[in-house]
Amino acid sequence: MFLKPFLYLFVLVVLVNLGNLFAQETPEADSLNVVAATDTLRSNRDSVSVKKTRPEPPFKTRIKYKANDSIKIRIPEQKIYLYNEGQVNYENIELKAYETEFDMKTKIVHANSGKDSTGNKIGAPVFKQGNESFDTDSLSYNFGTSKGVIHAIKTQQGEGYMHATKSKRYADGHIDMGGGKYTTCDADHPHFYLALSKAKVIPGDQVVFGPAHMVLLDIPLPLFLPFGFFPYTNKQSVSGVLPPSIGMEVTRGLSLTNGGYYFAFSDHFDATIRGDIWSNGQWKANLATRYMNRYHYSGTMNFNYGVTYTGEKGLDRSQTKEYSIQWTHTQDAKANPYRNFSASVNYSSSSYDSEYNFTSPSLLYTNTKSSSISFQKSWPNSPFRLTANLNHSQSSGNITLTIPSIAFSMDRIYPFRKKESAGKPKWYEDIALVYNANLDNSLTGEEGSIFTANSLKNMKNGFQHRIPLSINFKTLNFINITPSVNYTGVAFTNKIRKTFYPDSIGPNEKPGVLVVDTTRGLFYAHSLAPTLSISATPKFYLTNQYGHDSKVEAIRTIISPSATVSYTPDMGSLFDYRDSYTDASGHEEKYDIYAGKYSVPPTAGQSGSVSVGLNGSVEMKVRSDKDTTGVARKIKILDRFNATSSYNMFRDSMKWENISLAASTTLFGLNLNLGGHVNPYKLTPEGIRINQFGPQLTDVNLTTGISLPLEQKTKKEGEKAGDDDGYSYFDVPWNVSLAYTFGYSKPQFVGTITQNLTLTANVTLTKKWSLNFQSAYDFNAKTIAYLNGTINRDLHCWTMSFSFSAFGPSKFFYFQINVKSTMLRDLKYEKRKSQYDYTQW
């Protein structure tokens, strides 16, 4: 019996030593940590120092462990067993497994998966060290040498996944693999992979492999590689070569397209250079950049330049240079609340889109383009604003540039109001003052000659500022009386003088020559125009009530007539900038002596007009059969209708302008918009208006469209909405938009009709199949203008798409199946035919 205390003491000593090595993570107990220490004895009598060093512990830091089921410690064997979701943490290493065995003598841990009651594998070992992680079936790892043997490994390296039947991990983190697979498919059994005979994984750097072949759906393909590597980096983008695609076309020949180089300069800026080349000599280059400075600005730029050839060598071969530039720049709203810079540039040669963008109907059938570069500046606690613009517009080869347009403005102020007023304000305190100034320079010319000397000579420029001063009086709640004075000043750089020489012979051998002399300099013209305007906009409500036995409770019509009378007296005697000459028939012709961007301020004669209009809407209240409270719902019968015209009081004849008509409504989801114009006067047999009333419709246009979205049906619990392949019998999200335009024009005696029907559809057939297409039918030509479509199929780690255009001048099709991952983006199959393959000889 006297041996029991010594036995207990021995067990306690062993447990304490084990506690120094391992700290079990439990809520009830804390972990122990033993660190090697030294004792130093120093003597004050001499310089002798004695050090005693304790034995270094087997582990640098403590090891933490825990398990959901049980933990067994076998002291004689110096082993610890963890069962059911055991976890071991040592330095930056974390190991989780269903069964874990740790040998303290050899410092080796063995981890294995388990099986549930149905025989399925559970608790597969997961090894993590820093940012590195991999799944296995079983592994052995030595904490002392940092080496390990891994069976059935799966680890992610960048966008790819490495699989291997047996691997060996070294102290530096390198992994040698045998019987390996590399894929970007995240499934446990990948749909495709490169079968690697041997490979080395260098975490954070690359994967290097020896002989390999392609396997798709467990079928080996005759695609072999003698060796290769896959780079891996933590950066979002890496500079590198962009391999081209190989193609063949009937007219342009063999092609290499989209080849180039990607430059990852920094996290804020990158660039891509690509090139296309065809065997007939045609080529195109592209430079695309992106830049971003968070909370400040972001933008993109895309520049294209190409040379195209048509005809046969030695016969009718011709060369055309094509180019385009797109630039967008956006300033973050947080960057500066008082200053903003933005750009939206879209400029190209007239035939660029038909040559290179024939797959896009929106670009192919649009012959107008515009650009704007804008700078805006305002001042805090100030009414002043400054805007500078560079604008561009082009249509059918004609280009107009504004370089630049500067506007300076002052918001409405009340100069006679006091900062602190008491009592009723005086009438003159409502006098409002506004200031606007504009400086413009515009250049117009044809493509290719816009910057020639002749075009620059005809540049239009000018400066104009306006100072309107006004006050408003309101009476009867709907009549406004507004007297105002408008000052306008215009600066010119050209002054002209016209002289007619009746004795000279003109270019058409007609007597008389008109000579225009231009004097360049700086000239100024101004005018003062007092105006009185009176407007009235009453509103009337007409309501028809119905009995309780009627489904309709009431119909209400809102009518709002409007009339505005404006008058400006004759100020021509004070401001006159006109001259005259006598033509060959003895008639005096007047002209403005200044010419530029802005016209001379109008001062000749008095002016006055009366503008009249009629606006309204119609709505109906319908009783609800389901609502017992009797609450009716409103239905819009006519959203709006209006008719406007004006009468010129001082014109000699035909004082009425054309009558404008417009109406819109929505019926059963169908939007209807109707507009047109009526000429109030008769026409002569030659088509000239005369001063006799005889209204006739000059033009009418009808636009209607309907959109039919169908939201995905919510599946009830227990309801089966599709099969196992992802096909859905009832839940098919889709959207179809149908638009019809009708136009009728009859300015004189012959009327013309134009009709177009456009259809746009987007259908999600299943979770993995989608279809979208757009088409247009021209009723005049009785043909389909175009029909473009795209079919997409999600193949998990692959994607398949088929784009086509079946009608129109730009027929094409493009089929591609490729890996989703950017790492293997060039692992693809393509088949295409462009508009150049459908050329008729």
Can you put this structure into words, describing what you see?
By secondary structure, the chain is mainly beta. A hairpin with a 2-residue loop joins β51 and β52 (798-805). It starts with a helix and ends in an 8-residue tail after the last strand.
The main pleated sheet reads as:
31 strands, antiparallel
Question: How much helix, percentage-wise, in residues?
Answer: under 10%
Number of strands: 54
Low-confidence stretches: 1-50, 711-730
**Overall pLDDT level:** 80
SS-derived structural category: mainly beta
Shape: elongated
Radius of gyration: 42 Å
Q: Outline of this structure?
A:
By secondary structure, the protein is mostly beta strands.
Keywords for this structure?
single chain; 841 residues; mainly beta; 31-stranded antiparallel sheet; six-stranded antiparallel beta barrel; 4 helices; 54 strands
Please outline the helices and strands.
Elements: H1 3-21, E1 22-24, E2 38-42, E3 49-53, E4 63-66, E5 70-74, E6 79-90, E7 93-103, E8 108-112, E9 114-115, E10 121-122, E11 126-129, E12 132-135, E13 138-142, E14 147-157, E15 160-169, E16 175-183, E17 192-202, E18 206-209, E19 212-216, E20 219-225, E21 228-231, E22 240-242, E23 245-249, E24 253-266, E25 269-278, E26 283-293, E27 297-310, E28 318-331, E29 339-348, H2 352-356, H3 361-364, E30 368-378, E31 384-395, E32 398-413, E33 432-446, H4 453-457, E34 460-470, E35 473-475, E36 479-505, E37 511-536, E38 540-545, E39 552-568, E40 578-582, E41 588-592, E42 594-595, E43 607-622, E44 633-648, E45 659-667, E46 670-683, E47 689-710, E48 734-745, E49 752-764, E50 769-778, E51 783-795, E52 798-805, E53 812-819, E54 828-833
Parallel strand pairs: 1-4
Antiparallel strand pairs: 2-3, 4-6, 5-6, 6-7, 7-8, 7-11, 8-13, 9-10, 11-12, 12-14, 13-14, 14-15, 15-16, 16-17, 17-18, 17-19, 18-21, 19-20, 22-24, 23-24, 24-25, 25-26, 26-27, 27-28, 28-29, 29-30, 30-31, 31-32, 32-33, 33-34, 34-36, 35-36, 36-37, 36-42, 37-39, 38-39, 39-43, 40-41, 43-44, 44-45, ...
